[in-house]
Amino acid sequence: MYDVQRGSSITANVGNEKDQYIPRIKWTKDNSQLCIYRLNRLQNKLEFLLANAADGKTKVIYSEENKYYIDINDNLTFLPDGESFLFTSERNGYNHLYKWNWVNQSLEQLTEGAWDVDVMQGVDENNQSVYYTGGVTSPLERKLYKVNWNGAKTVCLTNESGYHSITPCFGNQYFLDRYSRLNTVPVYTLIDNKGNKVRTLENNADVKAVMERYDLGVITTLQIPNGKGDLLNAWMIKPTNFDATKKYPVLLYQYSGPGSQEVEDRFPVGNYFWHQLMAQKGYIVVCADGTGTGARGENFKKKTYLQLGKYESDDQIAVGKYMAKQNYVDPNRIGIWGWSYGGFMSATCILKGADVFKTAIAVAPVTNWRYYDNIYTERYMRTPQQNAKGYDENAPEKMASKLKGNFLMIHGTADDNVHFQNAVTLTDELIKANKQFESEYYPNKNHGISGGNTRLQLFRRMTDYLLKNL
Questions:
Q1: Strand order in 231-237's β-sheet?
Q2: Beta partners for 51?
Q3: Which one is catalytic: 124, 192, 447, 450?
Q4: Rg of the Cα trace of the chain?
C-alpha cells in the first residue's frame, strides 16, 4: 500500500504461506482499511483479511471452506456500520446472498431456494436493501430483484420472462435493463429502483426489420435426458422448411466449461448467424448444457471436480444418442463442434463416442489439462501430482487411438490461452496411432483467431468441412 503524500509503502501481512493466491483486494467503507481475499492453492479455503492501511497489520474477519472449490467473484459490499458486509456464497448448495457481522460473528441468509444468485447489482444504504439478478423461476432467465438487509420483503423489479442484463446507474436510483429472449432482439430500457420504466433508450427496431428479411429459423428450447436422471436444458434450430417425414443431420454445439451457460432465454445464442446458415443448408443445430454448467446449483456444477471432461462428454454423447433416436434425424449423421473448452469437449466426444459421432471440429482445444494454466486447472483438478489419473483418463491426447470418424482440429500458433502445444501433442499422438484427420493452423493468431480475413476463412473452412463430411 503506497502513501501518496508521504511517498512510502507498506506491505500488508498476508501470512507466511507463499503458495497461495490474493485474487481480490477491496477498500472497506471508510477507506482506512483494506479487505484482502486470501485463497489457498487448492482454492477450497477462502479468507477475508482486514488490513490496516497505516501499518499493514491484518486479521481474519471471515473464513469459508468447501469440499470442492470456491468461485471468486465481486459480490462483496461493506456496510456503513463498519462491522458487516453483504456477499454471496454457495455454502448451502446454491449461490445466495448473506450478511455477515464479524464483530458478533452473526450470519444472516437474505435469499434462499433451489436457484442461484447471479450478480449483486448494487446496495441501497438509505433503504437498507440490496439489488441482485438471478434465475429464480428458471435457470434460463435472469430478473432483477430487491431484498432488505434483513432478508425480508423480496420484490421482483423486472417481471417479463426472459433475460434481463442489468447495469446499475449512479446511486442505484436507476438501472439500464437490456432485455431479450431467444428470438427477440434486445430492447434497452431505463428503469427506476422500483421497477418502473422511465423510457426506452433503444428498441432495435431497425435490427429486427433487417433480420425479418432473412430466412431465419425459430429457436426452440427443450430438455434432453442424459440417462443418469438429469434433464439437460437445450435449444434447437431447425431448417425453416423442416419436414418431419425427412431425415436430417444434426450438429451439436457446446462449450461445457465449469459454471458456464450457453442455453439461456436471450438473444443471440452463440455463433447465431453461422448456426442459422447451417440450418439453411439442411442441418438441425442443437446446444445442450451438460453436467458442470451453471445456474443449477453447486452439486450439478461441481460434479465434474477432479475429472474434467468425463461427465461433460458423457452428457454430450447422451444428447447425440437422443437426437439419433428422433424420427426426423439421420442417426448416421451426428456431428459436434466447439471452441476452447468446447474444442476439448468435441475432441473428447469424437474419440469416446466413435459410435455416435460421424464428424467433429475442435477449435483451440485443450488436449490435456497438464498443459493449461495452473489457476484455472487446479481449481477443478488439483495438481497433476495429486490427481494424475484425473488428468490423463479424460485427455484427448490419451485417446487418440480411438479415432474413427472425421476430425478437424483448428488452432492459432500464438494462442495465449490454450497454448499451441495442445494441438501439437494431439497431432503427434494421432500420427503415432496412424489415424487420418485434418488440421488448420493460423500463424501468429491468438485464442480468438481473428483479424483480417481470418475469421471469415475459418468459418468457410468449417462450413465446407461439414458439408463434405456430415
A1: 219-225, 231-237, 284-288, 248-253, 329-339, 359-363, 406-412, 438-442
A2: 34, 58
A3: 447
A4: 24
Q: Exactly one of 118, 265, 314, 415 is catalytic; which is it?
A: 415
Task: Specify whether 392 is catalytic.
Answer: no
Tell me the CATH number at 273.
3.40.50.1820
Q: How many domains does the chain have?
A: 2
Do residues 399 and 351 lie in contact, with contact meaning Cβ atoms separated by under 8 Å? yes
47-58 per-position pLDDT tens digit: 999 999 889 999
DSSP 86-145: EEEE-TTSS-EEEEEETTTTEEEE---SSS-EEEEEEEETTTTEEEEEE-SS-TT-BEEE
Cell of 337: 463442434
Same structural domain, 275 and 340: yes
Residues 291 and 329: their CA atoms lie apart, in Å, by: 24
For residues 336 and 347, what is the distance between their CA atoms, to the nearest angstrom?
A: 9
What band does 340 get if pLDDT is binned at 50, 70 and 90? very high
- The CB density around residue 262, as the number of other CB atoms within 10 Å, is 21
Tell me whether residue 428 is one of the annotated catalytic residues.
no
Question: For residue 459, how far is the Cα from the chain centroid?
Answer: 23
Query: At 188, which helix (H) or strand (E)?
Result: strand 184-192
Q: Round to the nearest angstrom and report the end-to-end CA distance of the chain.
A: 59
pTM: predicted TM-score of the whole model, two decimal places: 0.96
**Last residue in a domain, options 168, 187, 213:** 213
Give the separation between CA 146 and CA 117, rounded to whole angstroms. Answer: 12
Q: Is-catalytic flag, 55?
A: no
- Catalytic residue of the set 315, 340, 346, 419: 340
Same domain, 384 and 420: yes
